[in-house]
Input
Amino acid sequence: MAMRQTPLTCSGHTRPVVDLAFSGITPYGYFLISACKDGKPMLRQGDTGDWIGTFLGHKGAVWGATLNKDATKAATAAADFTAKVWDAVSGDELMTLAHKHIVKTVDFTQDSNYLLTGGQDKLLRIYDLNKPEAEPKEISGHTSGIKKALWCSEDKQILSADDKTVRLWDHATMTEVKSLNFNMSVSSMEYIPEGEILVITYGRSIAFHSAVSLDPIKSFEAPATINSASLHPEKEFLVAGGEDFKLYKYDYNSGEELESYKGHFGPIHCVRFSPDGELYASGSEDGTLRLWQTVVGKTYGLWKCVLPEEDSGELAKPKIGFPETTEEEIEEIATENSDCIYPSAPDVKA
Output
């Protein structure tokens, strides 16, 4: 029975969406944060895309955003030379961490006590969030601006990527353990704790390495330049998106292309699986986020599979039903004088 992929389109941003991250699974579900060049990171319910709030305070493009595991704190990295930490429940700004250049990436430790940052000044910084007045620890060694920095190995090590190099650092000694060099620009990096797998994209390549040793595991070639890739939590599938506006889904074991969808109206900058693996989210140059089902036609979130009457000759297709927020309502809500905006209706469109 043929099923049609029907993504949920989450509008509200006014510039390209350049980064996104999911929280872990909490008693209230899981959550999704997006970073955008409009300087207004947004928090959404992860399984539906419903808009919860917008964090207001940055004075430049936001390049990176993350949530801690239980979705109580958010962190953002911006072109205004700051990283900010937020209360993700109330929307309040908790602290501003001044840098000397554009900040591109932020990541919490598992206990949310430390924040790792990286950016154009080529330095990794570790902030003790319980001592915001203290100077951060700094790690030098990168030769170009840092694009991504992630805690790994239960926060005992750090992974970081600049233009053409991925480096592994020991947290205790603050020294480099090993590095990987590429012949073209690294576009993204994802860390999978279960199995200690590192996903790296560069050019048309999607490469998998051991996060412990940086040894290669396998790699796939895509038909277009890839900007981001994500591995399913059960390591069954991987999804990738890039310059040709399309999302590709591959079998992780065989490398076979299973599906491809063109839903965005611009290059895809970021893609991530949800923590339960039921969906994946993509952010694009077109200013939207889209949510896609891993298994098309499954009843989940706002997707409801409605089977046709027998012998009707119709194909089964997922149905979506939910309220809409108009662009005028979004603009009106966005101008309210609040650190975190809570709309009366979810900002999601089919």
